[in-house]
Each structure stands twice: as structure tokens, then as C-alpha cells.
Amino acid sequence: MSDHHEHHAPTGLKRWLFSTNHKDIGSLYLWFSFIMFLVGGLMALVIRTELLYPGMQVVDPDFFNQMTTVHGLVMVFGAVMPAFVGLANWMIPLMIGAPDMALPRMNNWSFWILPAAFALLLSSVVLSIFADGNPPAPNFGWTFYAPLSSTYGPASTDFFILSVHMMGISSIMGAINVIVTVMNMRAPGMTMMKLPLFVWTWLITAFLLIVVMPVLAGAVTMVLTDRHFGTSFFDAAGGGDPVLFQHIFWFFGHPEVYIMILPAFGVVSAIIPTFARKPLFGYASMVYATGSIALLSFLVWAHHMFAVGMPLAGMLFFMYMTMLISVPTGVKVFNWVATMWRGSLTFEVPMKWAISFVVLFTIGGLSGLMLAFTPADIQYHDSYFVVAHFHYVLVPGAIFSMFAAVYYWLPKWTGVMYDRFWGEMHFWNSLLSVNLLFFPMHFVGLAGMPRRYADYALQFADYNFWISIGAFWFGISQLFLLWVLIKACFLKKGEKATMEVWDNPEGLEWTVPSPAPHHTFDTPPIIK
Amino acid sequence: MPSTLFHRAAALLTTLMLSGVAAADWTQRSAENMRPGVTALSQDVYSLHMTVLWICTAIGLLVFGLITWSIFAHRKSKNPVPATFHENIVLEVVWTIIPFFILIGMAIPATRVLIHMEDTTEAELTVRVTGSQWKWHYEYLAYEDDNNVGVGFFSNLATDPAVWERPILSGGLFPVGSARSRVGAEREALSAENPNTFNYMLEVDNKLMLPAGQKVRFLITADDVLHSFWIPDFSVKKDAIPGFVNESWAKIPDDAVGIYRGQCAELCGRLHAFMPIVVEVVPQDEFTAWLEEQKAASAEGPDMTPFADLDEAMAMGEPIFQRACAMCHGAEGQGGIGLPLAGTDLMNNSDRVQENIDILVNGRGAMPSFRAQLSPKEIAAVINFQRHAFGNDGGDLIQPDDVQQ
Ligand SMILES: [Cu+2]
């Protein structure tokens, strides 16, 4: 750990534009994802304003569809995925004792594609707003089912297709980088079974990404050629099949949901042991569970399609496989509980996020198990019950784990402690509002409210009102995080962080000073 | 949160036990749980749902109970010296195996219900359901021994767009809190004077009529994009896919005569939320009589009596335009998804009347064909309307015969 040959790195814009440093690029990813989180959140607020009361209130139904579509795309590809890539960039080299990512120039490239991709996608929204909703932005749902997106898609669909291609390229490059780094740059003595769980989960995620992002690219390309080059992949009139689209999409889409949650498992598995002052329970079984979740994730895609009219045998197969995937997921939850058990717990802000992750993710997991049961899914499918389910695994799931990670490692990144008061405010307000926001969605969904509805029947009125209130509250709560970040990153105000930051935490990242210097582990540490 | 779900589920179960499973009418809709519905199948689905819900609640409570316990009992102030264990093979095997067996236990009833659900054989009535942007088309294909019934009609949302298109940030149709108190209230008919009715968004012009006590098979397809035909009370949900036909079925018991409501469940464009499904279940003899009446009407052929004057045609055309065209062309003909109709050459040039008729009858691009949906007289009426409304002056009166050829 010698930092004496610190380079004369460029400063200002050039530093960020040309950076090949994993910490700089990690910060870029993290800020980008946070901005996208706010942008996607604004779109969610448009949706919830419209749904505050029955009757069309503020926007045209078609603009409503544009909002649900772009909200989904921005949150999945712009907020959650880049956030975890940013975290991987910052933490993987620090955790395995490597000086940087293995392919630093590609790292730079894979980040800088993203702003371009989202500028393209969001330009269609800006255009739509200024042109009064016509020509519309993509308005076919983030799942872009054909033929609504192909034959019937608006002109902006082509922007969307190109931007998804760019996001895909960026993700694949990011994934290659993670794999090469973990495989080749571990410090001497760090065997695979000594890797921190966060590194393990990211390694497996990276393989998932490499397998499925090309499938997504295939799907958008087929939509493109159906639109412009006379093919009929998804058009029955030309011998194609709209259901084929869904098979391809969900063959990407199901592993994608694990891409968004496996790194979260890794984060929580790092944080709980620190604040329980006790090693992670069942490390090996965590690794095997992650691996089996990843493998099973390729065998369950059609559970998103139980209403398309599949053969009975197909439905049974996908039902059983989906039920099976809850076993390794359950193992993880039990392991976290066992890690806390008889530990010596303290509840700093990151720990609060981590524990609420375990509880609320479990709710999302259990509603997922309910959705596995095909006959019941016939009633749940495409209702708000599904919306409740995937928001539980993504918001208090993936996003809470990101918050946990930010509060946990922020002192290492910036050298100052986060503002405790606003951190607590952020946590408590988010915790309460997120449940007001998403829990009643289970009720309206079961009672029969279909998703992607710009207007709804009367019996859903009261819950929708409270859901919207929860949404505004949750939205405002995120501004507290913005303040915490500004204070720590730019104003550098706050208690100075020590090297270890926490009470005897485990991991190589705590052996470098806080803030972590620009270059770390130029000479690799030796792991006994 | 789990305890909320728990309490609600418990309260609901109690209500159901007291009332029997008589949630036959949509007025008895629950605001927070799945409706048991009225068919044997939907009630099987409901009890499967409740079983799974209870098991999940139990698992959830167990896990959250342990976490809560740990938070209180194992905090640093109470337990300053942490234990050091970090694995326990027996425990880990046990909590892998036990869930596995619970799952097998749940899979058995699920498989049974699914097999039942997929059995569409031996239907007595076959209805083809076609979804299109944004209405449903019902065609009665076969009933008992008659394999060529030949009755069909379209079903559109009956709520006037003027009712749901509210001005920006109006206080909403219903002050908060009033919706719940209306559950169980007398249903009012939907009318222009009384738009705030209980069945807002769930009322159609032509209901799907079905007989009680007979197995009905639905053949479900679509004309344009995907739709999904969902009637919660029958546990029927099947995607409508252009170019493909899906099957589903319902057998409504004799004592479940009444009205059931559902909605389109697959995103299908701008008015996805505005294509409800309304089913009226009547006793068999009543159904047979209704069907005979419909057959006779369709055998008679369409009404071709000419319009007496432009006013008559305009009066007939206006509601048709608002119902069938306004969502794309705008209530004032200003355009939207469809081209503007106000003040265009096509509308005002009397030499282009035939072109106008062709577009309506055969469709063009994203403009649907109305041949099957409207009678020649209705098409003539709506053409007269659009050529003389919105400041247009499109020439002579068009008669049903002009459209017929
Ligand atoms: Cu539809």
C-alpha cells in the first residue's frame, strides 16, 4: 500500500472524460445512476398524480403509457444496473487487493456509452412533452411486447431500439471487465472460496449479463427489422408469432431480475456481519445458493406468460421450476437471520437499511412464490399484485441494498462520515413511505385492478389515493439522500472517518486509508 | 406490514364464512382480496390462493419473528460478546429440505386445479371473443346442436369520454372516502346526468349474454395488438393474440344468474383501461329466447331505410362518432392518433365522398375497417355527421344504399 508514486492525473472535465481509474469511473456510474433514479422517480410521480383520483386528471392516457414505459426503462437500465456496476468498480478491486479493473480503457468506454444511450431515449420524452404527446415517446411498456412495439410502435421506437443496444453493449463490457478482474487480479492467497460474497455475487451476475444481454439485443433487432425491413418475426400475417417475442424477451428478462438482485445479496452479506460482529453464517451455502439461483433463472422465464396459452406440460414445468427457485432464496434469508442470531448488534444507518432489506425483500419473495402457482397466477397476472411484487424486490430490495452500500462505504469513498441526522431521516421516511406506497398495491391487485391502467374503477379509489401519497412522500425522502451525498462528497463536511470506519469490519477495503487514495494496492497484499 | 395482511385475510375469511361464498354480484366486490367468484373453478383458485397466502404469511411471520427477537435480545447492550459460530450443517440441510416438502405439498393442489382449468372439452356454447383497439367483439359460433349460430356484436365502453376526460387537476370524480361507502349500494344506471355512478368505467353498450348451467367455451383472438380477456369471477384470463386462437372456459352455476365485470388485462395502447367486459348470465330458457331473437334480427338483414333529411342522419351519426371515432380523431374532429377531420379537403370536397366511404368500410393503415362493426346505415350516418360537423360542408346527404355497394 504505497501511494508515493501518485500520478499527476488530469483535473477538471478531462479527468472524468478520460478517466481509466476504477474509483473515478465508479463514482461516475454511481452519480449517473442516482440522477437516473431521480428522473425515473419524477416519471413515477406523474403516474401517481394521475392515479390519485379516478377519472383522467392531468395527462392523456397515451402520455400515461409513455410514462410507465420510460419509468421502467430508466429505473432498470439507468438506475439499478449502473448503480451496481458503479459499486463493482469501486469495491471489487479494493476487496480483492487489485490495483484497478483489468481493462481500464474499456471501463471508461462502457460508462460513457450510457449518457449517450439515455440522452437518446429521453430525447423522445422531451420531444413528446413539447409536442403535446404527439409524436409519442415509447408507449408500449418496458417489456415492449410486439406487435404494439413493432407494427404499432411510434417513430420513437427506433430511438428506443438504438438506446437499448447501447445499454446492452455497456453492460456486456462492464461484465467482461468484472470477470477478467476477478479471475486474474486477486491478491496472492485469495482463493475463490475466500472471495467476499459481494465479489462472488457480482461474478455470477456478470456471467448472467453476458448470456442474456445479447438475447435482448436480438429481441430489439427483430423488432427493428419487423418495423423497417419487411421481416415478420412477430407478425402472424407473415408467418410469425407475437408469443415468440415474449419467449425471447423473458429469456432475457428473468435472468435480468436476478442481475438486479444478486449484487444486492452480496451487499447485505457484507454489512450484516459487520454490525452483528460475527462472521457471515453459511458462506459456502451462500455461494452455492447464488449459483443455483443463477442456473435456475434460465428455466423459469415462461412464468411471466401463463396467460398466453401454453401447453399444460409447459405450464406445469415452469410452475415447478419457479417454486424450486424459492428454496435457494430461502436459504439466503435464513443465513442472514442466523448471522444476526446471538451477534452483538448495533444499528448504524447501513445496518438499518440492510435489516429492512431482509424483511421487505422477503415479502417480495413470498409474493413471488404465490405468483408461481399457475392457476392463482391466472388471477394475479397483469394486475397490481404483480406491480406490488416486483416493486418490493426492486425498491426495498435492490435499491435499499444500494442505500445500505452507500452509507456503508461512503466514509471510505469520501473520508468523512455521512450526516447521521439526515441519514436517519432518509431511512425512516423511506421505510414508512415505501410500505405505504407498495403494500396497498397487493390489495388493489388482488381485488382486480389491472396494471398499466390510466384510470380505474371505483372500488380501487381509496387505496390508490394512499398509494399516491406514499409515492410523494417516498420521492421527497430521496432529497435527504441528495443532501447527505452533497455534504459528504462535495462539501467534505462531517466527522473524519478512520481507516476501519466501523468496529473491526472484515475485508481488504478497510486496510486502506479513508478516503481511499487514487491508487491502492500497487503492491498486492498477501492473504494468509 | 405482514400483520396487516394477516388481519385483513382473517377478517375476510370470517366474512366469507358468515356470508357463504355468495359474492355473486360485482357490488359485493372486495377492496383487498381476490374474489372467490362464482364458478367451481374460480372457487378452487380462490382456495388455492388462500392456502398459499396463509403458508406464506406463516413463513413470513416466522422469519420476521426471529429477526425481531434478534434485534431486541442480541443487541450490543444486551449481548456485548457475540457468538462465533458461522455454520451448522444439520441446520442448513434442514432448512433446505423442509421448504422443499412444503412446496411439494402446495404443488399437488395447484396441479389438480390447473389440469381442471385447461380442460375445454364438452362445451355447449362456443363464443369467439376478439379484442381490438379498444373494444370487444363477441360472436356466438355454436350452441347445443346448432353449429352455425351466426350472431355477433361489438361491445364498447359506455362511459361518455366527457365524463372521464376531466379538466386538469379537477378535484376528481369522487372525494376520497366515498368510494368505499358505496360498496353494496344500489347500482344506478349510467347516464349523462349521473356520471358518478358506481359502475364508472365498467359499463358497456352491449353485454356478453351467457346461459347459466352450461359450459361455455371462449375462443379468444385479436385483430390488432395483444389484449387479454379477464373475468375475475370466472377465473378466466387468456391473452388475445392476433393471428392465433386461445381457448378458455366457464361454467356458471344455475344460481349465479347476474352481471359480472372484467377488464382488458394486457397493455394494448392508449385506451387500454377503457375496454371493459360485462357479462350477463341468464337462465337457459331466457338465453335461448334471446339467441332466437338475435338470429331473427340478423336474418332480416340490415335496416336500409333511407334518411328523411340531413338532420335525422346527423342526429344518428353524432353518438356513433363519439363512441367509435372520437378516441382517435378527437371529439371535435381535431385529430390525435387519427388524422384531423375538421376542415380537411377530404371532408369538404364533394368529389371525394366515395373515398371517404371506402376508408370507413375497408380501413386504411392504422384506421380500422368498420364493415363488421357498424351497419351500412350507421356508417352512412357517421359519414354524414363528420362531413357536416366541425365546420365541414361536405356535400350531399349520403344514404345507406350508397354505402352498401
Ligand atoms: Cu386491450
UniProtKB/TrEMBL annotation, chain A:
Gene3D superfamilies: Cytochrome c oxidase-like, subunit I domain (1.20.210.10). Its EC number is 7.1.1.9. This is Cytochrome c oxidase subunit 1. SUPFAM superfamilies: Cytochrome c oxidase subunit I-like. Pathway: Energy metabolism; oxidative phosphorylation. The keyword Signal does not apply. It is found in: Cell membrane; Membrane. It holds the Pfam family COX1. It is an enzyme of class 7 (translocase). Belongs to the heme-copper respiratory oxidase family. InterPro entries: Cyt_c_oxase-like_su1_dom, Cyt_c_oxase-like_su1_sf, Cyt_C_Oxase_1, Cyt_c_Oxase_su1_BS, Cyt_c_oxase_su1_dom, Cyt_c_oxidase_su1_bac. PANTHER family: CYTOCHROME C OXIDASE SUBUNIT 1. It comes from Alcanivorax quisquiliarum. Keywords: Cell membrane, Copper, Electron transport, Heme, Iron, Membrane, Metal-binding, Respiratory chain, Translocase, Transmembrane, Transmembrane helix, Transport. It catalyses: 4 Fe(II)-[cytochrome c] + O2 + 8 H(+)(in) = 4 Fe(III)-[cytochrome c] + 2 H2O + 4 H(+)(out). The chain crosses the membrane at residues 28-47, 67-88, 109-131, 159-185, 197-224, 257-276, 283-303, 315-341, 353-373, 385-410, 431-451, 463-486. Residues 16-528 form the Cytochrome oxidase subunit I profile domain. It is a multi-pass membrane protein. Cytochrome c oxidase is the component of the respiratory chain that catalyzes the reduction of oxygen to water. Subunits 1-3 form the functional core of the enzyme complex. CO I is the catalytic subunit of the enzyme. Electrons originating in cytochrome c are transferred via the copper A center of subunit 2 and heme A of subunit 1 to the bimetallic center formed by heme A3 and copper B. Its main location: membrane.
From TrEMBL, chain B:
Its main location: membrane. SUPFAM superfamilies: Cupredoxins (SSF49503), Cytochrome c (SSF46626), Cytochrome c oxidase subunit II-like, transmembrane region (SSF81464). Pfam families: COX2, COX2_TM, Cytochrome_CBB3. PROSITE patterns: COX2, COX2_CUA, COX2_TM, CYTC. It catalyses: 4 Fe(II)-[cytochrome c] + O2 + 8 H(+)(in) = 4 Fe(III)-[cytochrome c] + 2 H2O + 4 H(+)(out). It is found in: Cell membrane; Membrane. NCBIfam families: CoxB (TIGR02866). The keyword Membrane applies. This is Cytochrome c oxidase subunit 2. The keyword Transmembrane helix applies.
